Structure formats: structure tokens, C-alpha cells
From TrEMBL, chain A:
Pfam families: ABC_tran, TOBE_2. It comes from Kribbella pratensis. PANTHER family: MALTODEXTRIN IMPORT ATP-BINDING PROTEIN MSMX, TREHALOSE IMPORT ATP-BINDING PROTEIN SUGC. Residues 4-235 form the ABC transporter domain. One of its GO terms (molecular function) is ABC-type transporter activity. SUPFAM superfamilies: MOP-like, P-loop containing nucleoside triphosphate hydrolases. This is Multiple sugar transport system ATP-binding protein. Keywords: ATP-binding, Cell membrane, Membrane, Nucleotide-binding, Sugar transport, Translocase, Transport. InterPro entries: AAA+_ATPase (IPR003593), ABC_transporter-like_ATP-bd (IPR003439), ABC_transporter-like_CS (IPR017871), ABC_transpr_MalK/UgpC-like (IPR047641), Mo/tungstate-bd_C_term_dom (IPR008995), NA-bd_OB-fold (IPR012340), P-loop_NTPase (IPR027417), Transp-assoc_OB_typ2 (IPR013611). It comes from the Bacteria. One of its GO terms (cellular component) is ATP-binding cassette (ABC) transporter complex, substrate-binding subunit-containing.
From TrEMBL, chain B:
Pfam families: BPD_transp_1. CDD domains: TM_PBP2. It comes from Kribbella pratensis. It comes from the Bacteria. PROSITE patterns: ABC_TM1. GO terms for cellular component: plasma membrane. Keywords: Cell membrane, Membrane, Sugar transport, Transmembrane, Transmembrane helix, Transport. The chain crosses the membrane at residues 25-49, 85-111, 123-145, 273-295. Belongs to the binding-protein-dependent transport system permease family. Residues 87-294 form the ABC transmembrane type-1 domain. This is Multiple sugar transport system permease protein. It is a multi-pass membrane protein. One of its GO terms (biological process) is transmembrane transport. It is found in: Cell membrane.
Automatic annotation (TrEMBL), chain C:
GO terms for cellular component: plasma membrane. This is Multiple sugar transport system permease protein. GO terms for biological process: transmembrane transport. The keyword Transmembrane applies. The lineage of its organism: Bacteria, Bacillati, Actinomycetota, Actinomycetes, Propionibacteriales. Pfam families: BPD_transp_1. It comes from the Bacteria. Keywords: Cell membrane, Membrane, Sugar transport, Transmembrane, Transmembrane helix, Transport. The chain crosses the membrane at residues 12-31, 69-91, 103-124, 136-154, 195-217, 237-259. It is a multi-pass membrane protein. It is found in: Cell membrane.
Length: 366, 302, 273
């Protein structure tokens, strides 16, 4: 049962920067957990503090219920794969994989057995005698993973595991990584700045900014209901539309007026006349056909960008640009007037000042 | 259970990558710095002290030197031989480093860019060999080359009987040091020239610039920093070079006695340790000034 | 072909030939005189013989001075490499208080305090320590003089080694000793080899320090013995000197070629300062 418990954790650098700033986090046993955020948000520092490579200034880190805050990295039962893989250039693959065992003075015979078995699990057979420089990027990554697995840590830490691979390999490696984690069932924390990677791999995601946690949730939650405008901006390959709005009618379904018209919002607690920021994902907007009686946005198409099976259409609604994704066959021609609608459950209201999601909105119907 | 956000107490893991810790790091640094302190810093500082005494190699003052204040320095001000040494050092630096090595080194780097690899490797091999051979060997090669009776130079020029090292000692030293040190300038300029974007050289050729115009308008602005670095470094090395001693011992009649040779002759031939220390200190100050100028310029560039 | 082009090509090759001759001619002597039955100071086609080599091997001090040189330079090279390696590693990886000032000071020191500027106090100091006429004393002084530059070059090298190597070994539970032995040392080996060769070559050619500190001829290293033989003159020495020059140059050239071919020439202000 190797969960990770983090309480009140802060890591302050000698220059006074609070890279991790009072964080509470629980990673469950066997969970695949992502630390996501822009560069400089403290996610790598958090990972390195869990590993013990950075010293915690305040708070505690527990692994498998044991307080490891003051332990040396090697005594915490963690295994780590570095962004550059950190394969020792003078050792061959077999020696690299079994270096953690050599450190513990495991007999050479046992070591070579582990090397063969682990290499088999990661399809590295036949490469055991090669030096790291003779391997491809994907192979190097698997050797680094094999070495981490061979060290038999209770927790696996991955720093930007896919960033050193080229785009084509990255998808392949992503699938491989997810399957490997499922098969091993090892508690895994990984750091990434790529929201698509986090959404694809993780069971749960912690979105970080300036050393603080901004949202914690499953990929579905984080994507569909960002709890503040920072997360809303950060998640999604096409950014969420954030429009200035004003609540006009308050009931089970509020109506918010926004540039170009109005939108329905399934919220109960926002008083009429409140100034809000309205968030709606381009994927949840639809181009309506025929007459629309309810709340809707009206505008002219500025430009349409082909995304493959879909198109991202930019609509000018009273001077504010709104993005909407449509199926490629339904792409409106530039200059044409369109009407946009959205289901009330997908329209999110944020406090204009703090940017926080206005609470007690019912969960969207899946 | 510790309360949240309580400061972490007790020994935390070392912050550095190998878990060395500051204590052991000091232990790692200590032996090197003890040696540097004992054999470099201490002598440099001690020069100041010896320089204000009348310490001698032999005699009464060798046993009990007394402090004579700044009289060694006032002596240097009026010492015609010291002035001579300063002048010769300037000639030596200007002739062999600033002009000789710089110009020849750059010329080699420039013309070797487009020669065939075989030719380039051959020429570079000789230039480098002149640089890596031990200084006593090199000095002896040139003593033989300049020799009055059987020397190669006299054989080539048909001037048997000309004692080059006695008749023209400074000219010989300038030629010798140019020969000896050009390799450094050549390599530095070669790597500097590689950093000049070929597209700019081609643009210059497209608009019909002559070779000289290309050098002045395209190449030089790129390597200005390198010229400065190179000139300061080779000047510093040349001013402190002791190999003139190996060729002429400062002679004849002090005609090639540069400052380092003068210091040696005053200290170990004349036995005046106090006075020679005062001159050493002046040389140290001169070195320091040149180095500070260099570091200042380096910082401004980076 | 246009005539001005031809003239320029010819001029170009004349220039190259002139420069090559300037560098080559003084060296011809060391290639011919050792094998000449009647060696002189001028260059001429040798009257082939190996007699000079026999004379040199029989010379009472020649081969002995080579051993002295070897003794001094190996001691210096090993000491410089070991101490510079320890210091540069700690300076590169640990935030020692005052590190930047220390490095800046080192950089200044290495170019300011030269052998010639410090020869008097070094002589006086070694004199009072009773280390005059000691080969060990010579090695100590050379080590102190070469260390600042060596630390600088090596620190550059260590700075370029990714820290993740050590961090990853540390996460796997390796002790500091194991990290240094299993990871740092093998990764830094090319840098260490370069520094060792650099220190060896520098001390091999150093004339001033042993010239100041060594008095007796049987302790003189090769660099000083050559000067002694030159000053003595005489026909015996004229037979010995060319051979000795040749033999004395070989280690330096071989080491240079070795480093050049194995690691490529790195422009750390040159392998020789």
C-alpha cells in the first residue's frame, strides 16, 4: 500500500523563491498521477522534493505512511526516471539496468537474471550489450524505465517522460507507458507541461501554478469543469472561450448576456446583475440551424481552420472573437452569419475578480 | 503527526547532486588551495615584504636583513639598467607578440581556410611543433640556427662569420618568439574565423567587395573580441617569458635583458634579493593591470 | 585562365612556402644532426651514423636527467590531476560560500603570478624550507603554479556533465563514495586524461623552476641539463646535444598526438599555456 501523503509542503530555494508553496496532496496506491503546469510552476521541484533531491523547507512527505521528509533520496524507496534519462554513458544496457542492485551489493548472478527479465518486460532483448549512445531515443527511455523498475522502488517518479522523444514516437511511448503502469500497478507520479499528455495518461491530475495547487481531479473533471480561469486557459488543445458576461435572469437556469447575445447557465447561486466571466469550450458550442428561441450567440464567421476531422471556426460576436469546433462537413463559409448555442450544463461561470468557478453548479450530465 | 507547514527539523539531505555536503566539499577543495596558497599566493605577497628590505643572497644582509622602506623603488626609478629592461620588454612584446604572432597567426588562419587539407595539415604541423617542443630544445635550435661559424642562417645567406645573437640580439629574440608562439594565435583566429557566417562572406563577394574590403567590413567586426583576447594574452605571456635567457642570457652588455631576465640576473647573479623583489612586484602589478583590463572587457562582452 | 589570377595563385603559394620554410628550417637540425657522424650547428645532409646515440646513452648525466624529468613530471601531473579533480568537482557541484569570488580570484591569479614574477620569493622560501636541490620541491612548486588553470579547465568540463547522472545514482541509493567511483570518475575520464597530459607537458618543458631550485647536476631534469651542456660546449657535448634534444622532445610530441587523436584538440586556451 504505497501511497504518497504530502502535507503543508514548501520548498524554498536559497534565493528566497518559494518553488513549492504550502501544498497538500494525496496520491493513492497504484495511482497514475500527473503534475501539470506551465514551466516554472514548481511541478518539477515538487517531484524532486518527493524524491529527496530538493530539501523540504516546511511540511512532511510520507511514502507508504512512513515520514521520509528527512531521509536521503536512496532511503525513500523511490525510483526515478529523469528527463534526459541519465543513462550512464560508460555502462552498457545491462549494467545500467542493474546499477541499483549493484549499489545494494546484490550478487552478479542475480543481477544478470534481473537484467534479462526486466529487459524482456520492456522489449529490450538483444540490446543488453549496447552502450546508451548506440540506442534510439525510445530505447533509451525504456532502458531508463527498466532501471527504475529493477530498483524495486515503492513509488515511480517520472520527470517529463515523453518530452525528449520526437512527435511520432511520443504517441507510441505514451501508450506503452500507460500499459506498463497498469501491468505493474506501481504508484506513479509524473511531471508534464503538456496538458494532452496529462489527460491521456493520468488517473488524476494536479494542475499547479506558482507553487500552488490550482485544481485536483480526474482528466474528465479537469477538462469539463476547470475550477478557475487559469486551469480553463491551460487545459484543452483549443483554448476555452472566456467572455465577459452579466447574469440577467436568476432561476434554475440563469441567462447570462455576453457580447453577441446570451447563453444559458445551469447555476443556482449567482444573483442577477452579477458581473462574471463566462467559460465555454469550443467543443461544446454548436452552430444552430433554423430558428432559435432560447439564448444564443450571433456573429459572423471570420476564419475557419482545418484540424483534420474538425474545423475550428472563429466567430466575431460584437467585436469579441469566439471559437467553435464543427465537423468538417458542416464548416460555414467565411463571412456568413451564424447562430451559436450551448447546453446550460456546459456553460461555466467564474468570478470576475478572483477567476474562481462559482460554486454549487450541478455536475454536467455525462 | 506533524502539524501542516511546520518547518522541517533535523538534518535534511544534502542539497548538492552527489550528497557531498558543504563540509566534505571544503575537504575536497582544501588540498589544492593549500598548495596554491603556499606556492603561489604566499610568494606573491612575500614579494612585497622582501621588496622593502635589503635582503641579499650572501653577506650580513642574508642573515639579518633590515627594512629599508621604499628605497628599492626609488632606486628602480633611477636605475638605467631597469629602464633599459623595461624598454627592451616593450620592444619584445610589441615586435614579437602584438605584431609578430598576431599578424602571422591571423595570416595563417586566413590563407589556410581555403587551401587543400593536405597542405593545411602540413603547415599547421610545423607551426604547432614549434609551439609544443620543450623551450630548452627550441632555444638550442635557434642558438644553432644563428651560430656565427656553422649556423644555418649564415649558410643560407652566405654571411659566414656574422654573430647574429651578438650583433642583433633583440631582432633575434623577436624572430625567435614569433616563431615559437604563432601557433596559439593561429588556432584562436582559425576558430574565430569559423564563426563568421559564410552567408555574409558570400554577400560581400556578390556585391563585389575586394579581399581587403571583406576583411575590414565583414570579418573584422566579427572577430574584434578575439583579437583583443589574443593580443592581451600573448602580450602577458611574452612580457613574462624567460626564454630570452636561454638564447642570450641578456647579453651582450644588457642589450637583450628583458625584465624577467633582469630580475634573475639581479637576484641570483648580483645577489640583491631585496631589490629584485621590488622589481618583481612592479611586474606583478603590471600583470594585474593587464589582467583586470582583460577581465573587465570579457565581462562587458558576455 | 586570366593572367592576374595566375599571378595571384603563384603569389599565394610562394607565401605559403615562405611561411612553411620559416617554421621548418630551424627544425631541420634536430632531424639531421643526431644521425650525423660529424654534427655541427648547421644543417647539412648527414653522414649517417648511430654513434651519437651510443655516446648519449653512455653520457654520465644524460639518461639520468631523463629519469629526473620523469620523476618530477609524473609527480606533478598526478598531483595536479588529483587535487584539481577534487577541487573542481566540489566547486562545480556544491554551493560553497564565496565560490564565485574564489573562482574569479583563481582566474586572475593564474595569469598574474607567473614563474618569473614570483621567482625571487619562491627561491627564498624554498631556500629557507631547505628544499633547494630537491626534486620533490620542484614538483611542489610546479603543482602550485599549474593548479589554478587546471581547476579552471576541469571545472568547465565537470560543469558540462549533466547533474542527472549523479542524482539518478543517488535516488537508487548509491553512497557519495559509490557515486564518485561508479559514475563521476568514469564520466570525467577524458577530462582527467587531458589535464594530466597538459600538466605533464607543461612541467616537462619548464626550465625556470628547476633552474632556480636544483643545484647538483645529478638531480637536474632534462630541461636544465641541456642548458648546462650548452654552456659547457665541447665536441663531446656537440655529439650528445642533438640526440638528447630529439629524445627529450619525443614524449611531448607523442603525448600531444595521443590527446589530439583520442579526444580531439580542445581549445582550452591551448593544451600548453
Amino acid at each position: 500500500m504505497a501511497g504518497i501523503d504530502i502535507e503543508g509542503l514548501a520548498t524554498v530555494y536559497p534565493n528566497g523563491v518559494r518553488a513549492v508553496d504550502g501544498l497538500d496532496l494525496h496520491v493513492a496506491d497504484g495511482e497514475f498521477f500527473a503534475l501539470l503546469g506551465p514551466s516554472g510552476c514548481g511541478k518539477t521541484t515538487l517531484l524532486r522534493t518527493i524524491a529527496g533531491l530538493e530539501a523540504a523547507t516546511e511540511g512532511t512527505v510520507r511514502i507508504d505512511s512512513a515520514d521520509v521528509t528527512r531521509l536521503e533520496p536512496g532511503k525513500r524507496g523511490v525510483a526515478m526516471v529523469f528527463q534526459d534519462y541519465a543513462l550512464f554513458p560508460h555502462m552498457n544496457v545491462s549494467e545500467n539496468i542493474t546499477y541499483p542492485l549493484k549499489v545494494r551489493r546484490v550478487a552478479p548472478a542475480t543481477r544478470s537474471g534481473v537484467a534479462t527479465r526486466t529487459a524482456g518486460e520492456l522489449s529490450l532483448q538483444g540490446l543488453l550489450e549496447r552502450k546508451p549512445a548506440q540506442l534510439s531515443g525510445g530505447q533509451q527511455q525504456r532502458v531508463a524505465l527498466a532501471r527504475a523498475i529493477a530498483s524495486e522502488g515503492k513509488v515511480l517518479l517520472l520527470d517529463e517522460p515523453l518530452s525528449n522523444l520526437d512527435a511520432r514516437l511520443r504517441l507510441e511511448a505514451r501508450t506503452f507507458l500507460k500499459k506498463l503502469q497498469r501491468d505493474l500497478g506501481i504508484t506513479t507520479v509524473f511531471v508534464t507541461h503538456d496538458q494532452a499528455e496529462a489527460l491521456a495518461l493520468a488517473d488524476r491530475i494536479a494542475v499547479m501554478d506558482s507553487g500552488k495547487l490550482r485544481q485536483l481531479g480526474s482528466p474528465r473533471e479537469v477538462f469539463a469543469r476547470p475550477s478557475n480561469t487559469f486551469v480553463a486557459n491551460f487545459i484543452g488543445s483549443t483554448p476555452m472561450n472566456l467572455l465577459p458576461g452579466k447574469v440577467t435572469s436568476e432561476s434554475d437556469i440563469s441567462v447570462v448576456s455576453v457580447p453577441g447575445g446570451s447563453l444559458p447557465a445551469a447555476t443556482v447561486s449567482v444573483p442577477a446583475d452579477a458581473e462574471v466571466t463566462v467559460g465555454i469550450r469550443p467543443e461544446y458550442l454548436t452552430v444552430a440551424s433554423g430558428d432559435i428561441s432560447g439564448p444564443a450567440l450571433r456573429g459572423g464567421v471570420v476564419v475557419a481552420e482545418n484540424l483534420g476531422t474538425q474545423s475550428l471556426v472563429t466567430v466575431d460576436c460584437d467585436g469579441t472573437l469566439v471559437g467553435v469546433t464543427v465537423p468538417e462537413e458542416a464548416e460555414p463559409s467565411p463571412g456568413s452569419a451564424v447562430v451559436l448555442t450551448a447546453p446550460a450544463t456546459r456553460v461555466l461561470l467564474y468570478d470576475r475578480e478572483s477567476g474562481e468557478l462559482l460554486a454549487r453548479q450541478p455536475a454536467p450530465v455525462a | 503527526m506533524t502539524s501542516a507547514s511546520a518547518p522541517v527539523r533535523g538534518r535534511t539531505p544534502a542539497r548538492d547532486v552527489a550528497g557531498l555536503g558543504v563540509g566534505r566539499a571544503f575537504g575536497f577543495v582544501a588540498p589544492a588551495f593549500l598548495l596554491i596558497g603556499a606556492f603561489l599566493i604566499f610568494p606573491a605577497l612575500w614579494t612585497i615584504y622582501i621588496g622593502i628590505t635589503n635582503y641579499r643572497l650572501t653577506g650580513v644582509e642574508a642573515v639579518s636583513p633590515s627594512i629599508v622602506g621604499l628605497s628599492n623603488y626609488t632606486k628602480a626609478l633611477n636605475d638605467a639598467l631597469f629602464h633599459n629592461a623595461l624598454w627592451l620588454t616593450m620592444v619584445f612584446v610589441l615586435g614579437s607578440a602584438i605584431i609578430g604572432q598576431n599578424v602571422l597567426g591571423f595570416t595563417l588562419a586566413w590563407i589556410m581556410r581555403r587551401t587543400r587539407p593536405a597542405v593545411r595539415r602540413t603547415v599547421e604541423a610545423f607551426v604547432l611543433l614549434a609551439w609544443i617542443l620543450p623551450s630548452t630544445v627550441v632555444a638550442y635550435l635557434w642558438v644553432a640556427f644563428f651560430d656565427r661559424d656553422g649556423g644555418t642562417l649564415n649558410g643560407l645567406l652566405g654571411t659566414q662569420g656574422t654573430a647574429w645573437l651578438i650583433d642583433y640580439p633583440m631582432a633575434c629574440l623577436v624572430v625567435f618568439n614569433t616563431w615559437r608562439g604563432t601557433a596559439f594565435s593561429m588556432m584562436l583566429y582559425s576558430s574565430a574565423l569559423q564563426a563568421v557566417p559564410p552567408s555574409q562572406l558570400e554577400s560581400a563577394r556578390m556585391v563585389g567587395a575586394s579581399g581587403w574590403q571583406t576583411l575590414r567590413d565583414v570579418v573584422f567586426p566579427h572577430i574584434r573580441g578575439h583579437v583583443l583576447t589574443n593580443t592581451l594574452l600573448i602580450s602577458l605571456w611574452t612580457a613574462n617569458d624567460f626564454s630570452p635567457f636561454l638564447l642570450t642570457k641578456g647579453g651582450p652588455n644588457h642589450e637583450s635583458e628583458t625584465v624577467p631576465v633582469y630580475i634573475y640576473n639581479v637576484a641570483l647573479q648580483g645577489g640583491e634579493l631585496g631589490y629584485s623583489s621590488a622589481i618583481s612586484f612592479l611586474l606583478l602589478i603590471a600583470n594585474l593591470l593587464v589582467s583586470l583590463v582583460y577581465l573587465r572587457l570579457l565581462r562587458r562582452r558576455s | 585562365m586570366r593572367p592576374d589570377f595566375v599571378v595571384r595563385r603563384i603569389g599565394f603559394y610562394v607565401l605559403i612556402c615562405a611561411i612553411t620554410l620559416f617554421f621548418a628550417v630551424p627544425m631541420l637540425w634536430i632531424a639531421s644532426a643526431p644521425f650525423d657522424a660529424s654534427p655541427g650547428l648547421g644543417v647539412h645532409w648527414p653522414d649517417w651514423t648511430l654513434e651519437n646515440f651510443r655516446k648519449t646513452l653512455e653520457h654520465p648525466y644524460a639518461m639520468h636527467s631523463m629519469v629526473n624529468s620523469l620523476l618530477i613530471c609524473v609527480t606533478t601531473a598526478v598531483a595536479v590531476t588529483a587535487f584539481a579533480a577534487l577541487a573542481s568537482y566540489a566547486l562545480s557541484r556544491v554551493r560553497i560560500p564565496g565560490r564565485d569570488a574564489l573562482l574569479y580570484g583563481l582566474l586572475l591569479l593564474s595569469s598574474v603570478v607567473t614563474g618569473t614574477a614570483a621567482m625571487v620569493p619562491i627561491f627564498v622560501m624554498m631556500f629557507q624550507l631547505g628544499l633547494i636541490d630537491s626534486r620533490f620541491g620542484v614538483a611542489l612548486v610546479m603543482t602550485g603554479g599549474l593548479l589554478p588553470a587546471a581547476i579552471f579547465i576541469l571545472k568547465d568540463f565537470v560543469d558540462a556533465v549533466p547533474k542527472s547522472y549523479e542524482e539518478s545514482a543517488r535516488v537508487f541509493g548509491a553512497s557519495t563514495g559509490q557515486i564518485l567511483r561508479d559514475v563521476v570518475l568514469p564520466v570525467a575520464r577524458p577530462g582527467l586524461a587531458t589535464i594530466m597530459v597538459w600538466a605533464f607537458v607543461n612541467s616537462w618543458g619548464n626550465f625556470l623552476v628547476p633552474f632556480l631550485l636544483i643545484r647538483s647536476i645529478e638531480k637536474q631534469p632534462g630541461a636544465v641539463l641541456m642548458q648546462t651542456l650548452t654552456d659547457e660546449g665541447g665536441s663531446v657535448n656537440l655529439q650528445v646535444l642533438p640526440v638528447f634534444s630529439l629524445l627529450f622532445s619525443i614524449p611531448v610530441v607523442v603525448l600531444y598526438l595521443l590527446v589530439n587523436s583520442r579526444y580531439g584538440f580542445r581549445f582550452h586556451g591551448g593544451i600548453k599555456s
